[in-house]
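Give me structure tokens for this 300-residue protein.
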Amino acid sequence: MRSSNPVFSRRGFSRDNGYAGFNAQQPQAGGPAVGTNPYATGNPYAQGEANPYATNPYAPQDTQLGAPQQVRGNVMTIDDVVSRTAITLGTVVVTAVLSWLLLPVDPANLGKSYAIGVGAGLVALVLSLVQSFKRKASPALILAYAAFEGVFLGVISAAVSTYIADGVVAQAVLGTMAVFAGVLIAYKMRWIRVTRRFYGFVMAAAIGFVLLMAVNMLFAVFGGGDGLGFRSGGLGIMFGVIGIILGACFLALDFKQVEDGITYGAPREESWLAAFGLTMTLVWIYMEFLRLLSILQGDD
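Here you go.
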């Protein structure tokens, strides 16, 4: 299963081998198919599926049904994912705090700070797209994306907190953490089942959501006001909730990606892709919370 999030990237642990979990090889007579992983009993969607990392010499070697996996070095582990994600998110947080402190949003400097923030956001978008279309993870590229994303978030958050709703940033952070914890618990308890149908539904909903937001932004830019009203009033509240729910679905897809990568013995460098995806998803959820809370607590 390839994860997906706001940029609808081609990244994924099974990028070169189809969707891990859904491209099963037919078993041969007398035993499991070559390259299959018959021992992933903890993953209800991975039993008898083709291992997309069969070419990785360090991947688990399954030889006989019921035999333990022989795991060797240079494979992705949960510790790798946690450490890379901490580094990437830490970069976002540090640069966000620095931009909040060093780029004032008082009336005399708001235009300059806002221009720097928007410029950093555009650079972060370009870097994320470049990484999304690369065949391999680039730690330098991912950390550069995180740094520019942090500058954008810092400026936007400071402006919202100063001019729209004081204290809304802390609430958005807490909301993002709550969604992350809730989805993680639900995923581990198997209350959320990531299947091909789930993936297709999330992708279709996300594409529709992004297209609507793009049209709304175009109307706002060329027509003035709030565009079609998707980001204000009752419609804004509804679309804010939808955006947060989509972010939660992206998290479930990211968790599935990590689980498949560990189960099938993805190379260790793939943990940077997991960190990249989780960071983008958490940024998405934070921004949706920030917009929703701004509408609820703002003057409009």
